[in-house]
Amino acid sequence: MKSKLFLISAFHFLFLVQFFSVSCKHEIPVQVTPIDSTNQNGQNGCSPDTVYFNNKVLPLIVQNCAQSGCHDATTMARNVLLTSYTSIMTTADVDAGRPDNSELYKVIDRNEMPPSGPLSTEQKNMIYTWILQGAKNNTCNDCDTSLYSYSGAISKTIRDYCIACHSGPNVGTTGGGILLDNYDNVRIQGVNGSLLRSVNHSGPYPMPKSGNKLSDCRISQIEKWINNNFPN
Question: Phi and psi (nearest 5°) for 182?
C-alpha cells in the first residue's frame, strides 16, 4: 500500500512540475513593434518613430541637392543623381542600416553638401535615422483634406517642398525671385494664381522643381485654402 501511495505521489509531483514548467514557459511576452502600420499613433497613420522616405527625405534632398547645376538629371554632378529613391540608392552610396558608412550622410554631416549651406541638425538627424532604419522606400498618409489653413496645412507643404529654394540667398537663383517664407508672401502667389498653376503643373514653371508632383491631397488643400479666402 505504501509503495502504491509513493508511486501515486511521485506521479503527481512529476505532473505538477511538467504542468508549471509548460505554463510558465511564455511568461515574458514578445514585444512586436510594427513600423509602417497605418494604425500607429501619429498623423493619419504615420508612425512618429519612423522616418518616411517619400514624405520627408526625398523632398528635403530634392530641394537642397537636385536643383539645376547640381544633382539633377541634366547635370549629375560627380555622377550622382538625387531625384528618386532608385537614383539615390544607386549613385549616392547609401549603406542601408549604416549611416556612418553611407556617403550621402557623411558629406551632409561634414557640411560639404549642399553648397548653398549646411542642413540643420534636425535635417541631418532625419537622414541619419532613415538610413539607420533600413533606408526604405516607404511612405505614409500624412495629409488630411479637411485641414487647409495656412498654419494647419499650407505652411507644412511649403516647408517640406518649397522653402529651400524660395527663401534666403537661394531665392534669386533657384527660386526665381519668388519668396515663400511667410504667410503674406505665399498669399501673394495664391492671389495671382501662380501657386496653383505651379503645383498643378499647368503653367510654365511646374513645382516642386526636379521633384514629383504634389499629391492630390496636398493640391486639394491648396485649392481649398485659396477658395476659402486664405485662412491663416
Answer: -160, 175
